[in-house]
Each structure stands twice: as structure tokens, then as C-alpha cells.
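ok trying again, last paste got cut off:
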Amino acid sequence: MKIVVILNGVSRKKHFFYTKILPVLRNSFTIEVLETQYPNHAKELAAQAAKQKTDVVLAAGGDGTLHQTLNGLYTSGTEVLPSLGIIPLGTGNDFAKLCGAKSDAHLLAGQLRCKPLPTDVGKISCVNAQGEPVTEYFINVCSVGMGPEVVRRLQSSSRLWGAGITYVQAIVATFFTHRSHPVNIDAYDWKWRGKARVLAVANGKSFGNSIYIAPDARPDDGIFSTFLAGDLKLLKFLYCLQRIKSKKKVRDDRVFYNTCTSVNLTSEVPTFIEADGELAGMLPAKIELLPGAINFLR
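nice, full thing came through this time. structure:
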């Protein structure tokens, strides 16, 4: 079995990987490590691994590394994709938590010996800043509203105080500067029009470091869970945030939970969309679910 690890080259846990995880895995498997050197390098490395008929690709990093690796596999042009897995070395690790993945070499070795499970993938067809069509894939959550603005803020922030505090700071800071955008949502059997603070389309349960916007979601049930928060005021929004982080649903006439397998999003103003904590593009966007599209180790 050919296994490739794509390691986030700037991960603070890189030394831990080389000293505690890799030696144990190499006792049982032949593993090649490819370390990222610049932004989006993981996407290139994953495409390279797929073309070389790799059996398993492990994304060693956070949700962003996993996202880039997934997109690299899908843009490789290969007919049969490698199985995908994650070694959680990042800050958020939301999808890793859902899958029960841990930075434990013996647990990873056990996962590599098990048959990977078919897992749903999301596909976003949107445009870039120049209005050109782009396609992005995601495995956890994509969102519009505050989500993309938080991502942009996090890209320039320090993680000195840890991931949890950093995310909350970014969310609160974004609230004071972000204006709810008018969004048109068209799913197969439901529609919504109005100003949205957050709209999330979820394959996984949480994003933004354990913000559980879809506590009932499963990554293999062939359906998206959606979370929509309208134009909430600050105190109400912060209350909702704490309830969501406790894995509880919010009961408010401006907060909506729903499901879909595809949805079209438009807006009259420039609106970004993010996927798995990475900026994907801008609206208009069509989001589609690809059932069982990737074999995932979990």
C-alpha cells in the first residue's frame, strides 16, 4: 500500500509529527512525507500524489490542509482517487473531531488497516473576484456572511492565545464591522430572502473550532444540513453562539435549520463564500452534494 502524508510545513506540531507519529507508522507502513512550502502547495502535492497512483493520502494539519488536499485530489484528473485521511495537527480540526481522528500514531495505524468509508463531498460552483467561474470542493462546511469575514481576519491574526480564544475574538470583532448581506437562497423545496448574519451549508457538525451549527449532521447520509441566522443583534448573537458551542440548537424566529442536497445562492452586493475555513470565491454560487464521493479513513 502506497501512503503519502502531506504535512503543513508551518504547523507548530511538525516536530511532534516527526518524532512521535512518523516513526511508529513507519514500523508498519511505507510512507512518503511531502511538506508544504507555500500557500496552496498542499493542493499541488495532492494532485501529484493522485497521479502517481497513491493508495492513501493523509493530510497532516488542520481543516485548511484537509481542504486543499481534497481539492488537489479532485483536480488531478485521475479516474480513481486515493483514499483520504487526516492527522489533526491544526487549530480547529473540526472534521477530524467528527471522524474521531487524533494525533495518536497507534490509532492512525489502526485506521490505515481498516477499510475507508464512503463519505459525502460538497461542490461549489461560484466566481472569483474577476467574475471568472471557479469550482471548489469541501468536506466539512461552507458558509457566507460572517464566516468568510472571520476567515479573512484569521489569516492576519496571531494564534498566541490558542485557537478557541482566537476564533471567538475574530467572530466578535467581525460582528462589529460586518453588515448582514441580503442573500437569496433557493433550495429544491424551500426558499429564503433577507439579510443573513450567517448561512452555513454543512456536511459535518461544526466549524470555526467547535461551533456546532449542525449537531445532527452526518458526513455519509447523502444530505446537507443548513444553518441560517438572520440579522441578529449583538447580545442575542453572542447568546446563540454559546448555546451552539454547547451542541444545542437555537430556538429563535430568526434562526432556521433545514436540509438540502443542492442550493443556489445569490446576492445584490459582493458576497464572499468560504469552504472549510478557506476562501472559495464569491456569489452567485451553486452548492451540490456528491454522495459517497471520497473514501475516508475514520
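cool. The chain has a mean pLDDT of 92. Helices lie at 14-26, 41-51, 63-74, 94-99, 105-113, 146-154, 163-177, 234-245.
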